[in-house]
Design brief:
With 356 residues, this protein is α/β, with parallel strands linked by helices. The chain has three domains: 97 residues, Ubiquitin-like (UB roll), CATH 3.10.20; 101 residues, Fumarate Reductase Iron-sulfur Protein, Chain B, domain 2 (Orthogonal Bundle); 117 residues, Rossmann fold. Helix content is 39%, strand content 15%. It is built from 14 helices and eleven strands. A five-stranded mixed β-sheet has the order 2-1-5-3-4, with helices on one face. Strand 3 and strand 4 form a beta hairpin. The N and C termini lie far apart (52 Å). The model has no long low-confidence stretch (mean pLDDT 92).
């Protein structure tokens, strides 16, 4: 049995093209076909469509996909409308063929401390390297793969731990720029490994003896401690007439509920691509400009998609957006006028009152 796919495919030849472009294809493909088979079908229709025969990776609808991935699984997740890109468009030489020198250049950072077995393991992380989210904001980023290798080397007892950590943090864009996100079709979560590396670089500071003594003598009794003032609820004027987007971040179980509440008050929900991406909260202390770039990318994605109000799930992220809003606009080089934020709890309270 076969199925019909609508595909938007990336084209670029560094020798003849000034800018990349896309062409649309309709292909029929068997249910047991792979991602590579799909590319072959496109090439049959246009011989200028190019892809590597070895180390074949691609991005499909924004996620990194390997050659052997069944098309049926792609359709199950994305539907029958697919966009095919190189894993790194900036490094494309010819279609999906890229200059991948950066992959081994990153390994060279740790090569003085690595074994042949380490190199062999690193080569299995090729897809992970090109799935790095941070690279979208800083092309000099060393990649998530080298960080995962470093964690493996250190936890295996490397005698060069201090040198490895120094290397990862002394480069222009390294460990402290990483806010790990999974951009692989077949998910891999390396958050714990990245966090452990950061803890090695920045261990928690124990208070000095003087600080402990001052704290002890200045500490108020329970009776003296004042309860924090209740936070004033935020409401959006005429919210039912606004275009509303919901930024869920890592929360995955509220989308349907919030969507229904937006619908119930008569407002229009706006979808945007970065609604489930991270926005810099995890790196704001170590790499503030990069954090604000990520925050700005999220806000502008919602704004440019037509939203007037952004519901924000995480209170800490909401504070990041609001307290740095002027600086975010400067970093992004854009004015974002007439845009309002509301926490998910305040939205639920306001929506419930409207429905009542």
């Amino acid at each position: 049995m076969s199925q019909k796919l609508e595909i938007r495919a990336f084209f670029f030849n560094a020798k003849t093209d000034y800018l990349p472009y896309y062409k649309n294809f309709t292909i029929a493909i068997d249910d047991d076909a792979t991602a590579k088979d799909m590319l072959v079908k496109i090439q049959e229709q246009n011989e200028n469509f190019s892809f590597p025969k070895q180390k074949l990776l691609m991005k499909i609808n924004g996620l990194v996909v390997e050659a052997k991935q069944p098309v049926s699984s792609l359709v199950e997740r994305f539907g029958r409308s697919l966009q095919v890109d190189p894993v790194n468009s900036y490094r494309s030489n010819d279609g999906l063929k890229i200059n991948d020198n950066d992959f081994l250049e990153s390994f060279e950072l740790l090569a003085p401390y690595a074994s042949d077995a380490d190199l062999k393991y690193y080569k299995t992380l090729y897809a992970l390297h090109y799935a790095s989210e941070t690279e979208k904001f800083n092309r000099d980023y060393i990649g998530d793969a080298i960080l995962v290798l470093a964690h493996r080397m250190i936890t295996a007892g490397s005698e060069y731990t201090d040198d490895i950590l120094e290397t990862l943090t002394s480069v222009h864009s390294g460990l402290l720029d990483c806010e790990y996100e999974n951009n692989l079709f077949n998910a891999q979560d390396h958050t714990a490994a990245i966090d452990e590396l950061k803890a090695m670089v920045k261990p928690p500071q124990e208070p000095s003896l003087l600080e402990q003594l001052v704290s002890r003598f200045m500490k108020k009794t329970d009776e003296e401690v004042e309860a924090p003032a209740p936070k004033e609820a935020v409401t959006i004027e005429n919210i039912e007439d606004k275009q509303i987007a919901y930024y869920a971040g890592l929360v995955t179980d509220k989308n349907d509920v919030i969507s229904q509440m937006i619908k119930d008050i008569g407002a229009n929900e706006i979808s945007f691509a970065r609604s489930t991406k991270l926005s810099g909260l995890g790196i704001v202390e170590d790499s503030k400009k990069l954090a604000l770039m990520k925050a700005g990318a999220t806000i502008l994605d919602a704004f440019d998609s037509g939203a007037e109000v952004l519901i924000v799930e995480d209170e800490a992220v909401l504070d990041l957006f609001k307290s740095n809003f002027s600086e975010i606009q400067k970093v992004m080089g854009r004015e974002i006028l007439g845009f309002e934020f509301i926490s998910v709890s305040d939205f639920i309270a306001q929506a419930s009152a409207i429905e009542a």
